[in-house]
Write a structure and sequence with these properties.
By secondary structure, the chain is of the alpha/beta class. It has helices at 4-14, 33-44, 58-67, 81-92, 107-115, 134-140, 163-175, 228-235, 246-282, 310-321, 348-368, and strands spanning 20-21, 76-78, 98-103, 119-124, 145-151, 179-183, 204-209, 222-225, 298-302, 323-324, 326-327, 339-343. The protein folds into 2 domains: 4-30 and 260-368, Aspartate Aminotransferase, domain 1, CATH 3.90.1150.10; 33-258, 3-Layer(aba) Sandwich (Aspartate Aminotransferase, domain 2), CATH 3.40.640. The strands form 3 sheets. Strands 2-8-7-6-5-3-4 form a 7-stranded mixed beta sheet, sandwiched between helices. Helix 2 runs antiparallel to helix 9 (246-282), helix 3 runs parallel beside helix 9 (246-282) and helix 4 (81-92) packs parallel to helix 5 (107-115). The structure holds pyridoxal-5'-phosphate.
Length: 375
């Protein structure tokens, strides 16, 4: 039997044209012109008939390297940051190893850690400052610790790390000879963002992606940066021996060539949308934002005091209002029953749909309570 989440995704995809997609931190604000033209050209030239250069389009690699100039390395291209995360955990971890991580977190990475036979040690961060504090990480490091997981900004909470904390965490990795997995998928949304590789260049694997900043999630392209032998040991697990999708590369190149012209507007609109969501949440008793402002393009809405389950809120929003927000259970073992996650790099019209739907959904569910949650 399909899970409620699989059902929700099937429904949302079937009604794609009609759904306000606030559920996957995707970005619907990037001006489409340059990307469309690059794709049309690549299709006209039937680039899909041949394999790409296996290491990736050199112009794209240059653009990404320039974007991450502080790292001073060439990027490795993969089928999305997800593949780079899988390769990294597979290459660097083994049975008995531990990774210091958080709860909530982007748990897909934790699953990859487990596939490598290792385990995560999840520090509870669902309380201020809603991120990993260097001293708590230091306490959690033990004889089996092999890696620290630093997702910055963090999906799902939207919390991010000041430069001095990134430095302190990088120094811990360096001093304890640990790998530092620095997932910076949402970096462009975070003002003053610092890369851990600046402080621990030998230990850090940086995961980058164009899914969220460039609005190219469907293209499935991203990658990693790491130094010398570390990069080679990860690259051994590359399955894209024949290169990453040519159309995805063309789209990513067009986006990266033009990013400086539009990213400021994308971030500004995202912030304004976040502020509008905050207003709406403030008007709905029993709901609150643990982290505001978000340093990413998502945040969580705690619904615990309403007595409603996040799943009920997700279903009511999607099936009655066609506004897709995500129940927290796939993002937190301990707190997934408290929150829904909402992402907001969307048109103001989508956000207004949220503004109408959220109070109405909560009110309708409450009117039907106590069936919604037995307390
Ligand atoms: C923290 C984090 N890393 C990686 C990814 C996946 O990125 P990609 O689309 O590049 O595979 C996501 C997607 O939501 C994410 O939140």
């Amino acid at each position: 039997m399909a899970s409620p989440s699989a059902d929700a995704f099937r429904f949302a995809h079937e009604h794609r044209q009609d759904v306000a997609w606030l559920s996957q931190n995707t970005n619907h604000l990037v001006p489409p012109g340059p990307i469309e033209r690059a794709l049309e050209r690549a299709i006209r030239e039937r680039r899909y008939e041949g394999y790409p250069l296996a290491t990736g389009d050199p112009a794209l690699l240059d653009l990404v390297a320039r974007d991450f100039a502080a790292i001073g390395e060439r990027p490795f291209l993969t089928g999305g940051g997800t593949e780079a995360l899988y390769m990294t955990t597979r290459a660097l971890l083994g049975p008995g190893d531990e990774v210091v991580a958080s709860d909530p977190s982007y748990l897909i990475i934790h699953r990859f850690v487990e596939l490598a036979g290792a385990r995560t040690r999840n520090l509870d961060i669902y309380a201020p400052p809603y991120r990993l504090a260097p001293d708590r990480i230091a306490e959690a490091i033990g004889p089996r610790t092999k890696m620290l997981l630093l997702i910055d900004p963090l999906n799902p909470l939207g919390s991010g790390y000041p430069r001095e904390e990134v430095r302190a965490i990088a120094e811990l990795a360096h001093d304890h000879h640990l790998y530092l997995l620095n997932d910076v998928t949402y970096r462009d949304f975070s003002e003053g963002h610092a890369l851990a590789a600046e402080f621990a260049p030998e230990e850090t694997v940086t995961i980058w992606s164009v899914s969220k900043n460039c609005g190219l999630a469907g293209m499935r392209i991203g990658g990693f940066f790491a130094r010398g032998e570390l990069a080679r040991s990860i690259a051994r697990f590359n399955t894209n021996d024949l290169g990453v999708n040519v159309l995805a590369q063309a789209a990513a190149r067009a986006a990266m060539e033009t990013k400086s012209a539009w990213i400021g507007d994308v971030v500004r609109q995202t912030r304004a949308n976040g502020a509008r969501i905050r207003e709406v949440v403030a008007g709905v008793p029993g709901t609150s934002l643990p982290v505001y402002p978000s340093r990413a393009n998502m945040m969580v809405i705690d619904v615990r005091e309403t007595g409603l389950t996040p799943e009920a809120v997700q279903s009511e929003m999607l099936y009655q209002h066609r506004v897709f927000v995500r129940a927290g259970n796939y993002l937190s073992a301990q707190y997934g029953d408290r929150f829904v996650r909402v992402s907001f790099s969307n048109s103001p019209a989508d956000i207004e749909r949220f503004a109408r739907a959220f109070p109405a959904a909560i009110a309708a569910l409450r009117a039907r309570a106590p069936a919604a949650r037995a307390t």
